[in-house]
């Protein structure tokens, strides 16, 4: 629900700030009041106000994006520019002519290749995925039909990668809300609904390095299919979905594309009392906190969600005003505690202010404050972090713990366009780094310390197995990296190919 009158007042205030030259203040206010769920009218106003702010005032990372679509995307482009800016990215967009995806990609001397985009978004929808499958067809025939439809797109990926060092986003199929066979469509493999589902399920098997699926079907379900599939927009102006869904699509796409420029967060800073469990452990004791029982089920599920984030590579840290012995005892001995001490990269439980503790956590882990997300039930603590550590992202945690997961999930802080095996071990790697830092204090000079580690190095070309991790490492390294550029896997692979070609030419 949006209070239109209140929102209008805020928008007028933002407009005045822009006119007065207070650009950063206006942009921050605009970022705070805008939500993905807001309708097309509000999204258009956000985009319009953003366009009136000089881009140089925001110090955004530059990016070139090409959108190749079989539908009208003009309004999406305006809104997407704003949502990418919220993620720290200033985007320049090339848009192909309506329904000319194949022609644009095949024309190697055309405007797409002159533009040299870093990302190419193939903006398809379910109408672009067709099948010639008769009713009653076998499962094998249906599988072949789905793979044949996928091949039409994968051939375009090959052409793009042959001619451009770009990362490709490919929409999957957003399922329609009409069914010829009604409920039976879910029971037979040859129905259009299940063929589209099979297309979506098989599409990941065709994915290769430099290609990421944009999950349009998930977004259509999240928005609500009856509202998403407003056919009036298609017949009147060839919009693939309801204009009121533009904010949702733009925000999700913005998070994913920005992740390719290295803007994703990597660390959660978590409070404890009334955040990881209900109650105050210093007053209630281990047995008195709410966790795992009927009253504490929401906190249990929240911890399981955080544990899943940790297992995919997000660092979990603790910043709590508490006695450390009591906190450690809880993690070690509470029978329903899913998160254990080994899952926590850094634990700060003391009575210092949280600003200093968060700085210490960042220093211990050797990460930037801009890669941290702060989660605390106390609005006063959240405001202090916003004021004194503006680089840290602060989650507006609701009072109801049943909504904690949604509050973090909808922020899309941890989007990624790739995943490596090392990601799942990141928490342990950082804990080892912390241990090494403590170990280093035992030595009077760095040479003796390094010898004590008994490290071994392996030198060689970057193969496909290590490529994802290699790209992650160079994108997060800022020391001696004065350009602050961030490269995708495809761009790095192109550099490697150039080096190999050079060596083959000059070294016998």
Quick synopsis:
With 508 residues, the protein is of the alpha/beta class. It has 23 helices and 10 strands.
3D structure, described in words:
This protein has helices at residues 4-19, 23-33, 40-51, 74-86, 101-106, 111-115, 139-163, 192-206, 216-223, 225-228, 231-237, 246-259, 281-284, 297-311, 324-333, 354-365, 379-388, 404-409, 421-424, 426-440, 446-452, 464-476, 489-506, and strands at 61-69, 89-95, 119-123, 167-171, 211-214, 267-270, 315-321, 346-350, 372-375, 393-394. By secondary structure, it is an alpha/beta fold. Strands 2-1-3-4-5 form a 5-stranded parallel β-sheet, sandwiched between helices.
How are the SSEs placed, and which strands pair?
Blueprint: H1 4-19, H2 23-33, H3 40-51, E1 61-69, H4 74-86, E2 89-95, H5 101-106, H6 111-115, E3 119-123, H7 139-163, E4 167-171, H8 192-206, E5 211-214, H9 216-223, H10 225-228, H11 231-237, H12 246-259, E6 267-270, H13 281-284, H14 297-311, E7 315-321, H15 324-333, E8 346-350, H16 354-365, E9 372-375, H17 379-388, E10 393-394, H18 404-409, H19 421-424, H20 426-440, H21 446-452, H22 464-476, H23 489-506
Parallel strand pairs: 1-2, 1-3, 3-4, 4-5, 6-7, 6-9, 7-8, 9-10
Helix pairs in contact: 1-2, 3-4, 4-12, 7-8
């Amino acid at each position: 629900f949006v209070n239109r009158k209140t929102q209008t007042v805020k928008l007028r205030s933002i407009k005045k700030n822009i006119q007065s030259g207070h650009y950063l203040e206006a942009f921050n206010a605009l970022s705070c009041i805008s939500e993905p769920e807001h309708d097309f009218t509000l999204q258009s106003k956000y985009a319009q106000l953003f366009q009136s702010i000089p881009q140089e005032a925001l110090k955004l990372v530059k990016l070139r994006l090409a959108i190749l679509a079989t539908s009208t995307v003009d309004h999406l482009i305006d809104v997407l520019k704003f949502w990418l800016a919220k993620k720290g990215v200033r985007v320049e967009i090339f848009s192909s002519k309506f329904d000319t995806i194949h022609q644009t990609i095949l024309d190697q001397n055309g405007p797409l290749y002159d533009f040299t985009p870093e990302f190419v978004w193939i903006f398809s929808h379910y109408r672009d995925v067709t099948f010639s499958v008769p009713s009653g067809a076998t499962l094998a025939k249906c599988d072949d039909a789905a793979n044949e439809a996928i091949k039409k797109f994968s051939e375009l990926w090959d052409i793009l990668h042959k001619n451009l060092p770009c990362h490709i986003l490919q929409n999957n199929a957003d399922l329609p809300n009409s069914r010829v066979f009604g409920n039976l469509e879910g029971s037979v493999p040859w129905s259009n609904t299940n063929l589209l589902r099979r297309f979506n399920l098989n599409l990941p098997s065709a994915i290769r390095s430099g290609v990421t699926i944009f999950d349009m079907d998930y977004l259509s379900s999240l928005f609500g299919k009856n509202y998403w599939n407003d056919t009036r927009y298609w017949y009147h102006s060839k919009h693939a979905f309801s204009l009121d869904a533009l904010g949702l699509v733009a925000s999700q796409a913005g998070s994913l594309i920005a992740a390719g420029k290295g803007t994703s967060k990597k660390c959660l800073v978590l409070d404890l009392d009334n955040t990881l469990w209900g109650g105050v452990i210093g007053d209630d004791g281990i047995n008195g906190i709410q966790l795992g029982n009927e009253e504490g089920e929401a906190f249990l599920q929240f911890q399981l969600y955080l544990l899943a984030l940790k297992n995919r590579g997000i660092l979990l840290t603790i910043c709590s005003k508490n006695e450390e012995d009591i906190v450690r005892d809880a993690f070690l001995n509470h029978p329903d505690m899913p998160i254990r001490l080994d899952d926590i990269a850094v634990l700060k439980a003391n009575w210092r202010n949280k600003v200093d503790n968060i700085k210490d956590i960042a220093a211990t882990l050797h990460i930037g404050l801009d890669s941290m997300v702060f989660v605390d039930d106390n609005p006063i603590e959240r405001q202090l972090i916003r004021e004194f550590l503006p680089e840290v992202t602060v989650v507006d945690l609701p009072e109801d713990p049943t909504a904690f997961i949604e509050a973090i999930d909808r922020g899309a802080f941890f989007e990624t366009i790739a995943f490596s095996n090392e990601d799942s071990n990141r928490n342990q790697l950082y804990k080892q780094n912390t241990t090494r830092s403590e170990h280093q204090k035992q030595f009077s000079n760095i040479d003796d310390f390094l010898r004590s580690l008994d490290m071994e190095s392996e030198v060689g070309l970057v193969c496909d197995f290590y490529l994802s991790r290699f790209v992650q490492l160079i994108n997060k390294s800022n020391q001696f990296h004065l350009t602050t550029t961030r490269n995708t896997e495809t761009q790095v692979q192109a550099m490697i190919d150039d080096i190999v070609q050079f060596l083959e030419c000059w070294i016998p």
